[in-house]
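PROTEIN DATA CARD
Card holder: DNA-directed RNA polymerase III subunit RPC3
Chain length: 518
Origin: Burhinus bistriatus
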Amino acid sequence: MTQAEIKLCSLLLQEHFGEIVEKIGTYLIRTGTQPLRMIVNDTGLLLDQVKKALCVLIQHNLVTYQLQKRGFVEYEAQCKRVLRILRYPRYIYTAKTLYNDTGELIVEELLLNGKMTMSAVVRKVADRLTETMEDGKTMDYADVSNTFVRLADTHFVQRCPLVPESPESPDVPPPPAPTLVINEKDMYVVPRLNLVGKGKRRRSCDEEENGEHKAKKQKRDGESSEPPPDDGIYWQVNIDRFHQHFRDQGIVSAVANRMDQTSSEIVRTMLRMSEVTTSSSAPYTQPLSSNEIFRSLPAGYNIVKQVLDQYLTLLADDPLEFVGKSGDSGGGMYTVSILCGFGSRCARIFRLLLRKKHLEQKQVEDFAMIPAKEAKDMLYKMLSENFVSLQEIPKTPDHAPSRTFYLYTVNVLSSARMLLHRCYKSVANLMERRQYETKENKRLLEKSQRVEAILASMQATGAEEAQLQEIEEMITAPERQQLENLKRNVNKIDASENQVDETIFVLESFIESTMKKP
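Structure generated from the sequence above:
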């Protein structure tokens, strides 16, 4: 665990959960697995604060626990899972792209709460969607339920492990911590719920004070005291499935850049056919026959079977091996390789060393067509930054420089790890910059929020335009300009965070796939 990763985890925890949770999480990341007693002693926090913080971290899958043989429970932070908080906006945007606003809010609610029952998610999302609709329109629970089922069918959400049912025995005390289990076959099975109803809008204060509304509220509260039909069945976002989708999109984009749009559409179809049947960590998709691929091509995509076979052959023969042939039945069996290269946009020398593996300085100058002095400076600079390494091959045992070959080469895995480390540092710096910008303009932001609240209140009571204009003028022109600059800067920082995270995902995927290769 590098210092850059620890710092980024600390910033993410503080921003999303507050100081106490951040202190507990960072402590566990730095020290590793610890029992409750040690956490309380070393952090100096109250026992109740530590317990609540651990509950929050466990609820969001950021900390796991394990019952030791000696009978006590130890807690361990999941640093990689904490870093995934950085990717939450991308998960939510992907859900919106695939399943519209309803899918977006389902994923957002699950990410905000960690784990929720399906009935609770459906009601909350229906209420939120109803709030955005015109007066008189509401969101039906059934529509939200249908989107939830689609997310489960495509494995973007999954069930959480449960405490197994076992007969209670008065003679045997319960264990200090429960052991959670889940049957893999049940992970995406949606319970049959008859959720009837529509989303509700928030009532105004006047309505709350009305006696009739009070009676209805009491009746509704009495009904809600009953456990929901899916009580105990909790759901969470399947982050690995989103990563699989990102990876598939990257492969499709790479095929389109290297070949053409038709080739990328064929690969997209193959990935879509095997997205649920193939594990997110598998090196290849499930084999698909040419006939199956042809039948599954998008409607209106007018290519004949013979042309499809030619494209598949072309993809299988490509040096990057996006597609591999695994058999001849069904017109030919094909798979998509997940471990293909992501390509490189590095400097000319770096690309040259990647291609040629080992080169002397003179060969680098000749192949790259770069002047000797410039090539030497660039090689030494890349060497000092650990992008390239130097290998000595002596002709004689005395290692005399005049009788030694000096070959430059690239350790791709090492370079990827170094770039990943720099990306973590970059995101941490961006987050600190955003916090600084917000802190420096705190007074102005609070003033702007007060003015907006007054305007909203006056608009609700039907104030005249002149009165509203007078309130708006409480913020001067220079202050308004300062707010615009702040908003623009924060938006740029947010966009930069997302762009760096895309690079992090590519580097992490490359490192993970490289480590899996035999």
